[in-house]
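User: structure tokens for Thioesterase domain-containing protein, please.
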Amino acid sequence: MAEAGPGEKLSPADYRAVMRAFFRALDADAGLPASADQPDACSALIRAILSSVAVSASPAPRVSCTITVSPTVTNQYNTLHGGAVAALAEAVGMACARVAAGDKEMFLGELSTAYLAAARCDSEVDVEAQILRKGRSVVVTTIEFRLKDSKKLCYTSRATFYIMPLASL
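Assistant: Done. Predicted tokens:
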């Protein structure tokens, strides 16, 4: 492999070799563990941290649950991982959308999350989803994550679910 000096270009083969060496140095070429290769491994991880779930359909659809932040869903700062927050927001938001729209087929179209404060490992977080708007083809939910002991708002999400149209054959 030829080294390129400033202003020189590498050949495509040399560039690929440099990139492979870079990713090997990061250990990014290592395979995923077998547990991550199972279907729906993420949902099982999310279900494992849920403690209790309450669903109310009236006056407005609402889903509430409590999660315990375990070491399996924390980041390097020992706080709830951002990906876990997004996965929880999608799951709880979908549950709330299903309460409002029934058993219709739907999919997540948009998810936005504001990370306002951190939830530390072993803390309990109350998660509550409610309907912001329900239409014929769309359901918008808002999801709030609050620390159980102080009621401090940690994360807030808005999820838009699109209802699949019925096929006309």
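User: Anything notable?

Assistant: Residues 37 and 167 are 33 Å apart (CA to CA).
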